[in-house]
Amino acid sequence: MSKFHINTQCIQEGYSPKNGEPRVLPIVQSTTYKYDSSVEVGKLFDLEEDGFFYSRIGNPTVDAVEKKIAALEGGVGALLTAAGMSSIMIAVLNICSAGDHIVSSAAIYGGTMNLFTVTLKRFGIDVTLVQPDVSEEELRKAVRPNTKVIYAETIANPSLCIVDLSMFATVAHDNDIPFMVDNTFATPVNCKPFEFGADVVVHSTSKYMDGHAVALGGVIVDGGTFNWANGKFPGLSTPDDSYHGVIYTEHFKEAAYISKARLQLMRDMGVTPSANSAFLLNLGLETLPLRMERHCYNAQKVAEFLEASEYVTWVNFPGLKSCKFHEMAEKYMPNGTCGVISFGLVGGREAATKFMDSLKLASIVVHVADARTSVLHPASTTHRQLTDAQLEECGVGADLIRMSIGIEYIDDIIDDIKQAFDVIYNK
Q: Is-contact 105 132, C-beta < 8 A?
């Protein structure tokens, strides 16, 4: 663990140039790496030495950013992937196979919901969805003998629900299974799930970590504390015939989980990020604390404005005392949550459409959590594959507007909302 504050880690971790080397992390744009003898390469494949041999498994630029993110979250290792969804897919498949079961909060991103309820079911992996405010008793009842993981988001996209992380972790550990957390919206600046019992953390790095909407990416971070040799995860604690019979828990010790994800899943699935994408992600990480502070400040001001407006029927933002999840936010994210707000307008779905079309500063984009203010109607876009019942279950009503507040000057953001209201209600 680094002794530096996270603000310093965002700049200094992962890459330390030697005398005469580039000060800024360089882009190593190569698929492969030269060695002087076949013996050296053989040692890499036999896991006797560390090094790079093919960029699907590891690349110097990617490696530096993985080390930085692992340090930010407080984990023992990280694996960058090509997109946020591929990080979740690999994270789950690393420990689940046909016949296994997942317990997940129902308040999750629409793409994750589809992965769990459709795609993984085709793989023979079942899922039970629970409400984010589920009681401990109900959560315990959802766990089965074949359950291999409990999953949740620190701040749900787009409903902004916040689960009781410590309680979820306790239930998971009492059943000898890991607690996996998507920390995309909070980022390690505002929440460190490992400190509350999480065992694996995933992110869509395309969001706040990148911060500028320029590079897709995902990351898996291994906390390094879960006992993968407890008998429930033979893929980690018995010989892997596909990789020289290595036993991950014996060879890699506390880094067993992330090593298997890289050497087995990434090797076979190839959802590898480019060196250039990792370079851009690193630039975003350097300013992450500064941006998160402004995102949270601006979002708080906008949420308070919306709550006071006669045209707004409801507002959901954890920074508001009126929010159902404000107490959880204070417990787990006392320095701020994120820059995303959800709300509804008088006039429902029709008013939501008119509102988005009337904005001038904010853009309608299928994205969230970058420097620019953006807006979206999830029920008809990111979550449109879900049924009405599924929408209700994951907290995405037909009137819900998701607004991602950027880092522009706050008065300009609020003035843009005001003029849109004028267009709709004061014609």
A: yes
Q: How far is residue 317's CA from residue 303's CA, in Å, rounded to a whole number?
A: 7
Instruction: Show the tokens assigned to 232.
Output: 């429930």
Could you tell me the end-to-end alpha-carbon distance of the chain, in angstroms, rounded to an integer? 59
Of 266, 227, 220, 291, the closest CA to residue 73 belongs to 220
> What is the DSSP secondary structure assignment for residue 232, as one 8-state letter?
S
User: For the whole model, what pTM was predicted?
Assistant: 0.95
List the one residue out of 157, 139, 260, 255 whose CA is nearest residue 206.
157
Q: What is the mean pLDDT of each run of 10 residues along the chain (427 residues)?
A: 86 96 96 94 88 94 98 98 98 98 94 95 97 97 98 94 97 98 98 98 98 97 98 97 93 98 96 98 98 98 98 96 96 97 92 92 94 89 71 73 97 98 89
- For 38-174, where are the alpha helices, taking DSSP H only? 38-45, 60-73, 84-93, 110-114, 120-122, 136-142, 165-174
Q: Strand 401-404 to strand 374-376: parallel, antiparallel, or no bridges (unpaired)?
A: antiparallel
CB 190 within 8 A of CB 338: yes
Pairing between strand 401-404 and 340-345?
antiparallel
